[in-house]
Amino acid sequence: xxxxxxxxxxxxxxxxxxxxxxxxxxxxxxIAAVAERAGVGISALYRRYSSKEELLRRLCHDGLLLFVAQxxxxxxxxxxxxxxxxxxxxxxxADVHSLTVxxxxxxxxxxxxxxxxxxAGELAGRLVQRALDDxxxxxDAVVADVTLLLESCAAVRVPDPARTRRLxxxxxxxxxxxxxxxxxxxxxxxxxxxxxxxxxRWRTP
Amino acid sequence: xxxxxxxxxxxxxxxxxxxxxxxxxxxxxxIAAVAERAGVGISALYRRYSSKEELLRRLCHDGLLLFVAQxxxxxxxxxxxxxxxxxxxxxxxADVHSLTVxxxxxxxxxxxxxxxxxxAGELAGRLVQRALDDxxxxxDAVVADVTLLLESCAAVRVPDPARTRRLxxxxxxxxxxxxxxxxxxxxxxxxxxxxxxxxxRWRTP
DNA sequence: AGCAGAGCGGAACGATCCGTTCCACTGCTA
DNA sequence: TAGCAGTGGAACGGATCGTTCCGCTCTGCT
Lengths: 205, 205
What we know:
Two copies of one chain form a homodimer. Chain A is mainly α. Chain A has two domains: 1-48, Arc Repressor Mutant, subunit A, CATH 1.10.10; 54-202, Tetracycline Repressor, domain 2 (Orthogonal Bundle), CATH 1.10.357. Helix content of chain A is 71%, strand content 0%. Chain A contains ten helices and no strands. The model of chain A has no long low-confidence stretch (mean pLDDT 89). At the A-B interface, α8 and α9 of A face α8 and α9 of B. Chain A binds a DNA duplex through residues 3-5, 7-8, 11, 30-32, 35, 40-44, 46-47, 51-52.
């Protein structure tokens, strides 16, 4: 395959990459910004996605699928603590959380996405439970604390993307030292967040 | 003083409170939302502030001043660790960081605000240095880590404001356990953020 | 008592932004 | 070579929002 067809196929990925970059930098960016970044016209976008919302859904679902894949890989790691921390490092580094959470609310989720999100939550729960049973995670931590951890790492943000990744890794290390069992001393105040509190973005009104 | 004058004076604070609530919930909220929340007309707003930007500036500067005041109070606490942690708890609880950082960029800062921001940074630096000298803060932490900590706590957010405060307190406790000296073990990866990296929002283009 | 105007509510205006459509054009493909 | 998949980008229409403006009320002063 070559010529026009190949160019079109290449555009598929170019557009998706551009959209990821643009919407990660600014979840409310206009569609035209994506086209400009991709170096294509607006038509090339609308030929592939019938609306902005559909593109956002695709991006978000891709993020969820990556989350699930990484979580499954992490469960294969024999050491629960290494599995959990490695997983978190990957998710933070790939900025999956921005993809899934910051974009949620800008579109109405599909049932399929809801299912994937449930699967993601279930896998994360297993990763955390393993580390709790193992004794490597402080006993008063819950899976919701890990969700908040991801949210808080995504909030670390400087103009340079590469630098942002480094700073997030540093922040994550700090948080993990706070989560490790052998040095927890302060009692965590208040009840942990509930599932409903954390999933409010996925409301389908 | 009573009657119309008193009502007007009361509106001063009602409007400011409403603006704080509204813009904390959504930094890009329209002016009309503030008026509605305050239970006044739009004119009552424009009588006091010549533009939306001026109102935002006022809000932000108030936040900075509160930051400075709390930091000075914390320096009066004899125990450096208690001073630092108590200070952070206050700032997180009052959501000062959202006031100052999330609002920055939505207006052009005044020179006076720049000066206050510098003072705030200097005071925070002293609080951190005290805890470093004291040995209660892990030696590889820097003041920029504390800035990121505030940023990350502000990212913890659920629809209910009261619940948000509780969850942030919990998240802060986790982070502080990671920052305390006597249990740090993991080396923090990468160089800490520089001042320029964290102050980019205060750019005046 | 009466009036000037401070204070206010909210409709209306104009600017801006943005998603989507549409049309002309290009160059592969059959 | 005819036709159409693929595209660029101008143009449209709707929505949003900051700001202005006009008419009203009721106070505080003379």
